[in-house]
Amino acid sequence: MRLGEVGERGLLRYVIPRLRRVGDYLWGGDDGVDFLSRGRLVLTGDMLVECTDVPHGMGFGDAGWKAITSSISDLAAKGASPLLCYVELGLRPDMTFEEFVELWSGLEEACGAYSVALVGGDTNEARELIVGVTAIGSADRPVPRRGAGEGQLVGVTGKFGRTAAGLHAVQHGVDDQRWRPLVSSFLRPVARVKEGLVLSRYARCMIDSSDGLAATLGELVELNGVGFLIDSPPTDPLALEYAEAFGLDPYRLVFEGGEEYELLFTFDPQDERVIREELADVGCELHVVGSVTGDGKIRAIWNDREVEVRVRGWEHFVGR
Predict the structure, then answer these.
(1) Among 103, 133, 217, 302, which is most exposed with the fewest C-beta within 10 angstroms?
(2) How far apart are CA 207 and CA 196, in angstroms?
(3) CATH code, residues 153-308
(4) Predicted model pTM
(5) Is 80 exceeded by the pLDDT of residue 100?
């Protein structure tokens, strides 16, 4: 059956019993939820739109997973522990009920992975799939994007190029098992929640890399009035192999690809040892990739020479 036949009430009869109850007063069927907060709250939101965020080859379950992960990653970049997710759905009437169940299962799987309660939302008719996710978390010390200063070091929680290569594989129907880790990193990205909690104790500023490494650095330049020298570009080895196999520019994969959901942060040099140790305790390797400068430029050492990094990555409305 298609949603045009099931109707909104039919969907709600499926969804409401599956929602988590977190408060004493409001629950499924109410136009809101109630809960007791645990300290300082952080609120984030993100939107997944079919035409820009769901390429051919991505299933509805993967789309649901990605929609939740995008908002949870924003919480992670604030050093917040996720609590609740509230989901707004724009659904096509010609979408089948089975496709909807797949989408909802992806939402539930991601919420389960991050130990976050999916508590409610809204449904509406739309010309394409739209998933808006509002996420609420708690934080002792929310980390801002402002706070970078000259002399600080730049760290990241992972290597780059992996998901851009995975996107290329999905778009071009590459199904060789050799590249499956790249595809998985694109279809099922993982937000760095535990790492964000560790870094909240030390990071001077922090942001996730979902818009691409160059664009992420560019945003910090604009907000902080600083520059960056990236002297150890954090490049994923399998992505480099993929680039060579398919004739892709590895520089563009690393700096302009995006969708990694890694955390990029600045910190004081004297904290490097303790950050490295505490990240290792949660299964993450610290990659120190450069330093903050005062010249307002983004420079990188690439192929043994210094290049100026152009601030490029995905930007809505201009289509690149």
Answers:
(1) 302
(2) 10
(3) 3.90.650.10
(4) 0.92
(5) yes
At residue 19 the predicted structure's pLDDT band, cuts being 50, 70 and 90, is confident
CB atoms within 10 A of CB 289: 22
Two tokens, residue 95? 């979408």
Domain boundaries, the chain: 3-138, 153-308
Structure tokens at 223: 């907000």
**Which whole number is the average pLDDT over 62-77?**
98
Helix, strand, or coil (residue 146): coil
Comparing CA positions, the residue from 117, 96, 246 lying closest to residue 169 is 246
Beta-sheet strands, E only, within 92-199: 117-125, 130-138, 153-156
Q: Are strands 205-208 and 287-293 parallel, antiparallel or unpaired?
A: unpaired
Q: Do domains 3-138 and 153-308 have the same CATH topology?
A: no
User: How confident is the model over 238-262, as a mean pLDDT?
Assistant: 95
How far, CA to CA in Å, does 249 sit from each of 13, 216, 304?
49, 20, 16
Is residue 142 within 8 A of residue 80, CB to CB? The reply is yes
Q: What's the pLDDT score for residue 320?
A: 53
The domain at 3-138 falls in which architecture?
2-Layer Sandwich (3.30)
CB distance 64 to 107 below 8 Å: yes
Which residue, among 69, 123, 72, 73, has the nearest Cα to 95 in the 3D structure? 123
Q: How many CB atoms are located within 10 Å of the residue 311 CB?
A: 17
